[in-house]
Amino acid sequence: MDIDLYNKQILQFAASIPRVGRLAAPDASATAHSPLCGSRITVDLKLDGDVITDYAHEIKACVIGKAVASVVARVVVGLTVDKVDEGAEILKAVLREKTLPPPGPWAELEPFLPVADFRSRHGSALIPFEALQRAIAEVGRGGAVQRSADVSFQQIMPT
User: Fold this and answer.
1) Domains plus CATH for the chain?
2) Contact indicator for 37, 121 with CB cutoff of 8 Å
3) Whose CA is closest to 41, among 129, 107, 100?
4) What pLDDT was estimated at residue 144?
5) What pTM does this model have?
6) Pure H helices in 18-97
């Protein structure tokens, strides 16, 4: 196990994942899967307009995927859809460019900076956001459920 990749904070996040399970009556659900590593997450959410009011997930993933899912579950309730999109972009910048996350709800993504050096882990790290954004898209900005979402995340290797 590479100590730089599996730092103490990542291990702590992965060991204490909140909001595990399914919501009884979600507004939307979506599943994301990373075929490279086999990680999979299904998320349920409730929205009031553009604000996430409840969230739950089932995750089967490596430590990195579980740790990111833990961070998402800790901060997502009460955030707007735009803040979720911002979080996804922040994690992509952390992974692709080793950019420090700004202060705010997604500052907890800082421990994932070492993951940037392990491209094979990027897909697993991104699936919590991928599933969450698909679930949000299912509801749409108008609040009407549009479709069920099941997506496979294909890792894009930077050139």
Assistant:
1) 17-139 (3.90.1010.10)
2) yes
3) 129
4) 45
5) 0.86
6) 63-75, 81-97
